[in-house]
């Protein structure tokens, strides 16, 4: 690594969304200064994804031919073969991800040694990125834990994993750090005490927590609200740290807390993210991807039976819609199944990408010629009709139906369907709006991620979810389909991270 470059230390790296975006950020003269030195991730499949991507980035940085990488994406060679064909790049990529999944708190000896070595070798600027796991903070996690009588928040080590992060700040003394978390971190309590002010205090003065000596202090900035006094940034409202991704060109309402820590000796004030003058809809983000049909779960699956079931549903659905809406709206919808669809598609469609130009350049790799991770899951036959109903409803109303909108005959046999707890048990991602938050729940069932096309009757594929998260199309997710959904749902949108990367460049090279 050259010293003009910025060393990136990526903790809790997931599939690498934050690292991908940051490393794509360029200086005004087109140079990419960020170089990931280490990515730490404990999940086996996310780690594999990270390593494949590290390999790809390294091939590109070294201007080596990408043919073998594309051959791997096309399924022409295995990943082992790919790595064998480029042994030096493979060694580097494996080293970057520590030759295996590693856990902070458990494998600290090895992780800390590698960080110390990198910091010793690298005399230039350093950036620490990553968010400690959010399950313990997250609002969903808390409501789950509320039902668990034996759960004691202060004994949950995940609450304190951010201290692992503080430990690494002390080891690396980075110029800048970026800490991402769910919005629940703003209100999470331990012993009745809201933790966020304490977390901010700890991050401003990490040495006071870890007891390391001569640790610099940090100024903590919001990326969306200007500090009244940039020398000593304080914010009236903790929600000032909340970033609403849909305002920054991401086709998804993802609201996350991101803290920007700047070492006290750095006198430049960070800019805030620039609001995007347009919002990107689900349809703009995914409509050029090939059509797919869903499969059947719990019964034998084949295209003919799917077409028969969806044709039967279409007639029933027309009757339902005519009762609920006016004849004209109901008649205007085409609900018949698209014929000849598969559950998995790797060939590009002939549809033109519909996203804004800047995003097109971000997603599309003209040399890729294959669609990755684009496969549907199976659904219960009764749910197919509910999916078609949601999609048809959204075409008429431009919103997703709540359970109270469902006609009685479509109500599932849930005891609490009508009680309000499941007010939106099914949610269609409305074509002309940005998506709702893509979470790792998408790995469990597709009910919140129904595709807007009633003729496809299905939930989103991993690739479509990855588009909503702004992963470039040549980013491959490793592991089973379920593992891939988890990774995509956990990530920071790389397109947002790239914008943060540009702010860091301005801070470091003013
Ligand atoms: C929210 S995700 C991170 C997303 C990532 N920053 C991105 O942009 O793609 C958190 C990740 O931390 C990992 N993780 C949780 N505890 C960990 C630990 N103790 N050590 C290493 N990784 C951990 C989880 O497996 C998960 O992939």
UniProtKB/TrEMBL annotation:
EC number: 2.1.1.37
GO MF assignments: DNA (cytosine-5-)-methyltransferase activity
Enzyme class: transferase
Keyword Cell membrane: no
Keyword annotations: Methyltransferase, Restriction system, S-adenosyl-L-methionine, Transferase
Top-rank taxon: Bacteria
One BP term from GO: methylation
Catalytic reaction equation(s): a 2'-deoxycytidine in DNA + S-adenosyl-L-methionine = a 5-methyl-2'-deoxycytidine in DNA + S-adenosyl-L-homocysteine + H(+)
InterPro entries to which the protein is assigned, alphabetical: C5-Methyltransferase, C5_DNA_meth_AS, C5_MeTfrase, SAM-dependent_MTases_sf
NCBIfam families: dcm
Family indicated by similarity: Belongs to the class I-like SAM-binding methyltransferase superfamily. C5-methyltransferase family.
Protein known as: Cytosine-specific methyltransferase
Species in which this protein is naturally found: Pseudoalteromonas arctica
Lineage per the UniProt record: Bacteria, Pseudomonadati, Pseudomonadota, Gammaproteobacteria, Alteromonadales
């Amino acid at each position: 690594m050259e010293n003009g470059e910025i060393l990136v230390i990526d903790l809790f790296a997931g599939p690498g969304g934050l690292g991908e975006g940051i490393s794509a950020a360029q200086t005004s003269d087109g140079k990419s200064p960020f170089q990931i030195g280490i990515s730490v991730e404990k999940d086996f499949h996310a780690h594999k994804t990270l390593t494949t991507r590290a390999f790809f980035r390294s091939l590109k940085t070294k201007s080596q031919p990408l043919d073998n990488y594309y051959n791997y994406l096309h399924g022409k060679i295995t990943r082992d073969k790919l790595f064998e064909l480029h042994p030096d790049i493979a060694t580097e990529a494996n080293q970057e991800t520590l030759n295996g999944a590693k856990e902070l708190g458990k494998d600290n000896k090895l992780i800390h040694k590698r960080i110390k070595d990198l910091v010793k070798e690298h005399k230039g600027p350093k950036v620490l990125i990553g968010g400690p796991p959010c399950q313990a903070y997250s609002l969903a996690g808390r409501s789950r834990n509320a039902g668990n009588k034996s759960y004691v928040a202060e004994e949950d080590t995940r609450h304190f994993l951010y201290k692992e992060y503080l430990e690494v700040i002390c080891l690396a003394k980075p110029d800048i750090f970026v800490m991402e978390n769910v919005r629940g971190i703003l209100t999470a309590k331990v012993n009745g005490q809201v933790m966020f002010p304490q977390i901010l205090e700890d991050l401003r003065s990490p040495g006071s927590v870890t007891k390391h000596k001569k640790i610099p202090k940090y100024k903590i900035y919001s990326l969306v609200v200007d500090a009244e006094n940039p020398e000593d940034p304080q914010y009236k409202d903790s929600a000032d740290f909340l970033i609403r991704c849909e305002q920054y060109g991401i086709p998804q309402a993802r609201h996350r807390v991101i803290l920007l820590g700047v070492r006290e000796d750095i006198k430049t004030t960070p800019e805030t993210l620039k609001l995007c003058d347009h919002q990107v809809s689900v349809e703009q983000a995914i409509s050029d991807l090939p059509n797919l049909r869903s499969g059947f779960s719990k019964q034998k699956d084949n295209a003919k039976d799917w077409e028969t079931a969806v044709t039967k549903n279409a007639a029933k659905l027309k009757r339902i819609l005519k009762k609920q809406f006016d004849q004209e709206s109901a008649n205007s919808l085409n609900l018949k199944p698209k014929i000849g669809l598969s559950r998995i598609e790797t060939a590009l469609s002939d549809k033109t990408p519909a996203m804004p130009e800047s995003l097109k350049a971000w997603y599309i790799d003209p040399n890729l010629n294959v669609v990755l991770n684009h496969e549907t899951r199976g659904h219960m036959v009764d749910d197919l009709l509910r999916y078609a109903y949601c999609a048809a409803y959204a075409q008429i109303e431009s919103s997703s139906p709540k359970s109270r909108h469902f006609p009685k005959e479509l109500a599932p046999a849930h005891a609490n369907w009508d009680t309000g707890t499941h007010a939106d048990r099914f949610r269609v991602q409305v074509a002309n709006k940005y998506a709702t938050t893509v979470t790792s729940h998408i790995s469990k069932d597709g009910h919140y991620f129904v595709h807007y096309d009633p003729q496809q009757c299905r939930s989103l594929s991993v690739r479509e979810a990855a588009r909503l998260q702004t992963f470039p199309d040549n980013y491959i997710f490793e592991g089973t389909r379920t593992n891939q959904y988890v990774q995509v749902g956990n990530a920071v949108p790389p397109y947002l991270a790239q914008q943060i990367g540009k702010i860091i460049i301005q801070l470091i090279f003013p």
